[in-house]
Design a protein that fits this description.
mainly alpha, 16 helices, disordered N terminus, single chain
Length: 461
């Protein structure tokens, strides 16, 4: 690692004591930078996740178990269209961060136009996918009857707001690449708070059921996107951007090549989620509803670490482009220290309050018992997931997006899905839950091996 350290902006100290002092100051500085970027994102995302939890509570209380099961069955399909888009947008975010770090910000306007064109095209394709293929996906997962009808209603209504949903994601990718997480926070706060109010109005007050829950998201995301577009235009002047079709196409393709592994990763994850749903479906609507709640809770618990990972990606990309690889390594070290402390506190809190958490969603005893069991069986091992997510941010920032892709394939498709299939026969639904821990363990082992190999080769260079 001699060349890596020597190339950083911190000079090599003459003694181990001075080295420790300088690194300690560096780690504190990197930690402040990481938190300054990730905390606004986390605030916004926690508000958004809180809305999603509130949405599940509203559906569970006013529509019933079949309503919760319908939303749960719709999740893999919505994940396919939404998460794949966000994965591909990560390539744009990395390019924006590199342009910022290397002092080539004037080239960003071409990439912005390419991102805008991609978002519009993707929204149109996904609307067609939902209206044309939802029935096929639900049938493949073994979802039929009232649950399938509810899922189709929910997804088709939700698709009317895809332009707003993907537009918010595109604005977020641009702003994260600039390091402007506060503007992302403002946009997402508006969307989430408006969403919660509208969902309550449409479902609890007007009695519109699942269609009302989806309409709340459609209206909120559309309003938030338009407001965000105005705000970003005012703060960054993107309304003045101009470019030829050939230039913006070239920029879009360059960004998508970076994001392609992440996009494919999310495709495989969504397909794997459909397989898992097909394994859960024979246990009935209560099991589907419970696992839907568990997925929402897991998204809430993991949100901070995904935002931390995104902050690591941006800072590592900027420092690497600026010729400061030592700072990039310190970013990872500081983030992992923070990750361990937060994960331990969060895991203890969830496990201690698991019964109260489950009771907030439904009065159905069978659903509550599955949710509580899921928390007790997975959250003691949540550090496996959170550490893996943070290290993936480091690898993405280096442009090594293939490693997180391979890790996700091993963790989810090679380990978790087969383990769920094998264990659900002797253990029932508990076997599907234990497979979550197995997948996390396999993923972290591979991720540790990959980053260790990269650092070792860098030290030998």
């Amino acid at each position: 690692m001699g060349k890596l350290l020597a190339s950083g902006f911190v000079p090599r100290p003459r003694s181990p004591g001075k080295l420790t002092a300088v690194m300690s100051i560096g780690l504190r500085a990197e930690l402040r930078s990481i938190l300054g970027f990730s905390v606004p994102m986390s605030v916004a995302n926690y508000v958004q996740q809180s809305y999603l939890l509130a949405d599940s509570i509203i559906v569970g209380r006013y529509v019933g178990i079949d309503g919760l099961a319908s939303v749960g069955a719709a999740q893999p399909v919505f994940y396919l269209v939404n998460a794949v888009f966000l994965g591909l947008v990560s390539g744009f975010a990395i390019r924006f961060a590199r342009m910022t770090g290397s002092g080539r910000a004037e080239r960003q306007q071409d990439a912005v136009l390419g991102l805008a064109a991609f978002a519009v095209v993707w929204a149109g394709l996904c609307v067609a996918l939902v209206w044309g293929c939802t029935g096929f996906f639900l049938g493949a997962m073994g979802i039929h009857g009232a649950v399938a009808d509810g899922s189709r209603t929910y997804l088709e209504t939700l698709s009317l707001g895809f332009l707003g949903l993907f537009g918010i994601g595109a604005l977020g990718g641009f702003l994260r690449g600039l390091g402007d997480s506060r503007t992302v926070m403002y946009i997402m706060l508006l969307s989430s708070l408006l969403n919660a109010c509208l969902a309550w109005t449409f479902v609890a007050v007007l009695g519109m059921g699942l269609r009302g829950a989806a309409l709340g998201t459609v209206a909120a995301s559309s309003v938030a996107f338009l407001a965000g577009l105005v705000l970003v235009s005012w703060r960054h002047g993107i309304h003045r951007y101009r470019g030829s079709v050939s230039v913006l196409t070239r920029q879009a393709l360059a960004a998508l090549r970076l994001g392609f592994p992440v996009g494919v990763q999310h495709v495989m994850l969504s397909l794997g989620s459909m397989v898992l749903t097909s394994l859960i479906a024979p246990f009935g609507p209560a099991a589907i509803a419970a696992m839907s709640i568990a997925a929402r809770l897991e998204a809430l618990a993991g949100r901070f670490f995904l935002d931390l990972s995104g902050a690591v990606t941006v800072f590592v990309a900027q420092h690497t482009a600026a010729g400061e690889p030592a700072r990039a390594r310190r970013v990872l070290k500081a983030a992992l220290r923070l990750c361990v402390g937060v994960t331990l506190a969060e895991s203890v809190l969830f496990v201690l309050l698991r019964h109260e958490i489950a009771a907030a969603f439904t009065t159905a005893g069978d659903v509550r018992s599955v949710v509580a069991a899921y928390i007790a069986m997975t959250y003691p091992f949540f550090l496996l997931y959170s550490a893996m997510a943070v290290i993936h941010g480091f690898l993405n920032g280096l442009g090594r997006t293939v490693f997180p892709f391979v890790c996700t394939m091993l963790s989810f498709l090679v380990a978790r899905v087969p383990a769920a299939y094998l264990l659900q026969r002797p253990l029932g639904l508990d076997g599907v839950i234990w497979a979550v821990d197995i997948g996390w363990l396999v993923g972290l082992v591979y991720t540790g091996w990959a980053v260790r190999g990269l650092l070792t080769r860098a030290g030998e260079a």
